[in-house]
Specification:
Blueprint lengths: L1 E7 L4 E6 L11 H12 L7 E6 L3 E5 L7 H7 L9 H13 L6
Antiparallel strand pairs: 1-2, 2-4, 3-4
InterPro entries: eRP_eS24_sf, Ribosomal_eS24, Ribosomal_uL23/eL15/eS24_sf
GO molecular function, one term: structural constituent of ribosome
Pfam family, one: Ribosomal_S24e
């Protein structure tokens, strides 16, 4: 069941609150929810992002590819997360500590 449907013209997406009712069952997997929402909107599950679930209140949905947070897109396999080595990250952190202000 969906409610509070909003269309964002600038980001070219729809977002809504979704109530997931699952009496007598454990928490429903997000992949299953994506498939059902895709069937309702006559689209494919790969363009739907489901996140922010809370017990009794439901969660949000948005079409994300362009503007969604990268970690959430990587979780669905829509973009690759660049992986640097641990040592590189530490060296970068220590170089940043030596520079004061915005020249980082």
């Amino acid at each position: 069941q969906t409610r509070q449907i909003m269309t964002d013209q600038q980001l070219q997406r729809k977002q809504m609150l979704t109530d997931v009712l699952h009496p007598g069952k454990a928490t429903v997997p997000k992949t299953e929810i994506r498939e059902k929402l895709a069937k309702m909107d006559k689209t494919t599950p790969d363009v739907i992002s489901v996140f922010g679930f809370r017990t009794h209140l439901g969660g949000g949905r948005q079409l994300a590819k362009k503007n969604g947070p990268k970690h959430r897109l990587a979780r669905h396999g829509l973009c690759e997360q660049k992986k640097t080595s641990r040592k590189q990250g530490k060296e970068h952190k220590n170089r940043r500590k030596k520079v004061r202000g915005t020249a980082k």
